[in-house]
Amino acid sequence: MIQLYIPLGFLGVLYREIKQSLTDLEKMFSLLEKEREVADAPGAKPLVLDGPPTVRFENVHFSYEPAREILHGLSFDIPAGKTVAVVGPSGSGKSTLARLLYRFYDTSNRANGEGRITINGQDIAEVTQSSVREAIGIVPQDTVLFNDTIEYNILYGRPEAGHEAAVAAAEAAHIRGFIERLPQGWRTMVGERGLKLSGGEKQRVAIARTLLKNPPIMIFDEATSALDSANERAIQAELRQAARHKTALVIAHRLSTVVDAHEILVLENGRIVERGRHADLVARGGAYARMWALQQAGND
Ligand code: ATP
């Protein structure tokens, strides 16, 4: 009997190890897929930061494929601790901006000495990629959950933070009560093979993850999926709270999210066609005002 137990116990350990390596492999593949695009400059040093920085896009051109330029020379600043929102039709290039800031790709015109993105004056293509990514938290449209416990999923990115920190982040992201009411609580398995979370719950997990990471720069890619309006308002409030004192880029699909932004950029076909604060843009009676009127009519 004893002989039987030992191999079974060993198999249990082996199973956990294989499962862990599969998760790590998944992470590695998804990172490698992106990292093939860019490499650290020789002798690159880490980004130097002291609190929320200013982010600057300077004449940024970008094409995924040489024959088709997606961004045609964009310039804007996100001042330290402020939120800039980007709105515009599907395909106008909003998520591409976020991908460039996270340095999944380099700008297409940097070879000519143009097309820079800087963080406190430091060109993100000149400092180490890992230091740029450490400084940025992303709440994506659709959060990937690992096949593991909800606690693992919240701690993902900073596992050493520990349970108490996960609880505090979940509390701030308004998902603690939900987790603690589950029969298995923090040990509930989620992901493909576990409990399926709704779009809103997944976004709250992403917000909790980002709060735990506590980066000085945040990117929010608002979900397009229709959440019910009570949920939507709650998530917006959580995002606003999370972005306080951070330098934030918000890609917004619902204009109600951007009313308080320091600046709103209206993107069309890779160009900024209007920019300003909400009230000024509504008063101007242009593209933004038309989008606002349409959404108001849809919501009421
Ligand atoms: P949405 O509001 O629908 O999310 P978006 O404004 O965020 O759209 P982007 O995702 O930035 O738009 O895409 C801008 C353009 O770039 C689109 O025309 C898209 O087809 C193209 N594009 C996006 N990703 C790639 C890619 N990996 N390879 C080639 N073209 C791409």
Could you characterize what this model shows?
- The protein has 300 residues and is α/β, with parallel strands linked by helices.
- Helix content is 40%, strand content 20%.
- The chain is built from ten helices and ten strands.
- A six-stranded mixed sheet has the order 6-7-8-3-9-10, sandwiched between helices.
- α5 crosses α7 and α9 packs across α10.
- It is globular, with a radius of gyration of 21 Å.
- It binds adenosine-5'-triphosphate.
Order of helices and strands: HEEEHEEHEHHHHEHEEEHH
Overall mean pLDDT stands at: 85
- Total E-strand runs: 10
**Structural class of the helix and strand makeup?**
alpha/beta
Low-confidence stretches: none
Strand content: 15-25%
For the record, give the distance between the C-alpha atoms at the N and C termini, rounded to a whole number.
70 Å
Number of helices: 10
Please compute the radius of gyration using only Cα atoms. Answer: 21 Å
Characterize the biggest β-sheet: 6 strands, mixed
Biggest sheet: strands side by side, in what order? 6-7-8-3-9-10
Bound molecules: adenosine-5'-triphosphate
Q: Give the helix level as a range of percent.
A: 40-55%
Overall, the morphology is: globular
